[in-house]
Amino acid sequence: MASRKTALPAASTVVPRARSLLEATADDWRIVIVPALLLLLLVAAAMEVAAPSDWRIHSLIAGFDLAREKNVAVWVSTLLLLTCAANFASFAADRTAGLRLPWVVLTAVFALLSLDEAGSLHERETSFDGGVGLGVMIAVAAILIALGAYSGLRLFAGRATRSLALLLAVAFALYASVVLQEFIEHRVAWPEWSRAPRVVMEEGAELLAGFLVLIGIARMRAGRADFRWSTIVPVIEPANTTRALLLGALALHVALSLVYLQTLSDLRGRGNPASWFPCLAFLLIAYRGAREAEGRPAAVGAALLCSAVAVIDAERWWPLSATDLSQDGCRVAATVALLALGWRAGRLDRASLPVVVALLTTCVAVLVIGNFSTSEALFGIGAYLALEVLVLTRVTTALRAPP
């Protein structure tokens, strides 16, 4: 009689969960950010003391000078403030520590600070020699201090948010000192040798303030002194709240582009307010990609590049000015590259085809239309469409998917 063999069950294969870029990076973010900020301050001081005579070297180094506009240094400073604003928006959406209004207020404050950093608002709209300009500056500063004080007191009342409240208090004191420094700077005849120390003090106070807020955010998110990158990269959810906030920011962008830009005659030397929203939109794409399990370094890098060229004046910075690409050309090329990487990563499907077509049409319109204000408005719309197709639609699908 033939023996009956009992089949053994096959061993189960455990497929490890794919890690996100943030999970794979355990490095302390301070190791990167602190030297970067110190380097920017060193460049700003050096440019005040002795600027290089060769125009190419001068143009290259000037791209990292905090005392100038529309360059890498301004982009980094804007990213610092936008990261704070995005984290506070994330806290508001999650009702972190049982609060919402203080987080909303802080989101608005840091969003306004980032808009001012990218768009040179207070440099244009205020003066320190008396009159309306000085009154506007004092009024805006008072409102920001009052809003910050309200949020700080609400956060200080909670044990879990007290350390963040203390760091915010120091940060707002530093921001207030910047206003005082600018006021004194326009009232005192300073010697030539003091230019470098004054630039370092003013710009250093702003960078230190943003850095301290990031420290507080990291401790708040981790519940302890944990400084991995995942503690400062905001979580983009839920989709409905995110979309509503971004549509409001997009409406502000269109208004700035079509109305406010028409009144400006110093865009060559000052920041561009219309660069703020595209910088934000592409930054959120990068942050979302860094948190996703299937996120790829190339796509995250492309999104950061799009955010950078939204702010940086390619026609004035030597590495980019040596090419045949215009400012709009650099922006469109980076956006199309990001879209191509998204398609290669499987982020685009038939459902997203209409948005992709609209985005590509917008990119073509940016290159074809000769009106500067209209092109800026269209580029912001294109940035939102990229955010919609690469991030928001995917977040919505994930929220609606059955558990």
What would the keywords be for this entry?
403 residues; single chain; 2 domains; disordered N terminus; disordered C terminus; mainly alpha
Describe this structure in words.
Helix 8 (162-185) packs antiparallel against helix 9 (195-222) and helix 12 packs antiparallel against helix 14. This protein is an all-alpha fold. The chain is globular, with a radius of gyration of 23 Å. 68% of the residues lie in helices and 0% in strands. The chain starts with 20 loop residues before the first helix and ends with a helix. It folds into two domains: 27-235, no CATH class; 236-260 and 267-403. It is built from 16 helices and no strands.
- N/C terminus separation: 51 Å
- Which sheet architecture does the biggest sheet show? none
Please estimate the helix content. Answer: 55-70%
Order of helices and strands: HHHHHHHHHHHHHHHH
Briefly note the structural class of the backbone.
mainly alpha
Number of helices: 16
